[in-house]
Amino acid sequence: MADKALDLDFVRSFFPALNDSWAFMENAGGSLVPHTVIDRVKDYMTECQVQPGGNSAIARDAQGRMKKGYETVAAMINAEADEVVIGPSTTRNVITLAAALRDSMKGGEVIVTNLDHEANNGHWRRLEEFGITVREWSVNPETAELEPEALRAMLSDKTRLVCFSHCSNITGGPNPVAKIAAMVHEAGGFVCVDGVAFAPHASVDVKALDVDFYLFSLYKTYGPHLSVLYGKRELLLDARGQYFYFHGEDNLPLKMNPGAPNHELTAGCVGIGEYFEALAAHHLEEPANNLHGRMRQMFEIIARHEESLSARFLEFAAKHPKIHLIGRATPDHDSRAPTFSFVIEGVKSQDVPPLLEARGIAANAGDFYAPRVLEAVGIDSADGAIRCSFVHYNTVDEVDRLIGALKTIADG
Ligand SMILES: Cc1ncc(COP(=O)(O)O)c(C=O)c1O
Predict the structure, then answer these.
(1) pLDDT confidence of residue 19
(2) What's the distance, Cα to Cα, between the start and end of the chain in Å?
(3) Mutational test site, ligand 1, from 31, 86, 164, 169, max ligand atoms within 8 Å of CB
(4) Residues 323-347: tens digit of each pLDDT
(5) Domains located in the chain, CATH noted
C-alpha cells in the first residue's frame, strides 16, 4: 500500500498558533512550533530547570533531557551527537566557527558568494583583516543562480574554504551541494554550507552530502530559537576551541560553544523528533528503522504537498505581467523551495505587507539580510522584495487567498 498524502488537518492540529482566520506566509523568517516542542520546553522548566549534570537526580534528569535534544538534532541530519554544536543562532555559530578556523587559513583563500544570507558571508569576509584572501563567487545576474563551473575556475591549491548556501532564502533555488563539495575537496579545500532555507523543506544527510560544515536554524525547522552547526569530527577537533582553555581541545561539541547552549530549548528539540514521529506513524505504511529515515520519508510526502502550493502560486505569479519573480518559475522540489521573492511593478515592496495583513496574510518585504543578491539582480535593497514563503502546514486555500490579495494590489 502507498503512503498517505499529507493529512493537513492532522498536521495543523499540532500547531497551536495556526488558525483559519489568518495565513502565515513568513515561514522563511521563522516557522511556527508544534505543541510537542512547547511541551518539552515547559516540562523541562517545570520539572528540572537546574544546572544539568550535578550530583542529584534532578540534575541528572536535566542532563539526560539535553542529551536527548542533541541526539534528536543529530538524527535529523544523520550526524553523531558530538558532531553537532547547538548554539543560539546560525549567525552566532558562523562567528564562532570563523574564529576557530582563522589561524588554520592564514595565507590561503576563502570563497564566499553574493547569493547568501549575510550569516555565512560577512564574518568570512572579515577574515581579510587577518591576512586571508577573500574572493566572491557571484551569481549570474540574469538567473540569480550560482554556476558551479564559475566556482571551478576560482579553485586552486590556495582554496581553504568555500561558503555557500544549500538553498537561497530569496530565490528558493537550491545549489548542488554534493557536487560542489566534491569539486572543492578535489582542490584540497573544505565547504561550509548554510542549510537554513533548505532544512525546513527536505531531509538533510550530511554524510551523503559529504559536507565539512553545515548549519541550519532550528527555529525555522519547527523547533525552538536555536541553531545547529555540524562539523566533521576531525575538523572540529582540529579547530581552535572557543570556550575556556580548561575544557580542552577534545571536548566536543562543548569546545565550539562558548557559554554552552540554552538548556530548556535544547531539551525542547526532542519535540521536533516527536512531531515527525507522529507524522510518520500517521502517514507511513513501511516506516524506516530510524528517525532520520522516517523524516526522509515524511519529507518526500511533504515535498508533494509543497509542490502543489508552489504550482498554484506560480501559475498566477509567473504569468502576471506586473509581478517579477526572482528565481525559477518551476514548482518541483528539485528546482526550488516554496519561498518566493518578487517585486510588483509600480508598487513599493514596503507598502505590500500592510495590505496583505489587512487581508489576513502575514508576509514581509525587505532584503532579508541578503542585500547582495538583490543588488546583483538590479533590485534596490532599501525597498527590497516582497517574500511569501510556505511550509507544509500551509494550505491551497491560503495560497488562493494570497493570490486574490496580490491580484488586487498589482491590478491596483
Ligand atoms: C538562509 C539563511 N541563513 C542564515 C540565516 C541566519 O539565521 P539566524 O537567525 O539563526 O542567525 C537566515 C535567517 O533568516 C537565513 O534565512
Answers:
(1) 87
(2) 49
(3) 169
(4) 999 999 999 999 999 999 999 999 9
(5) 8-32+300-411 (3.90.1150.10), 38-272 (3.40.640.10)
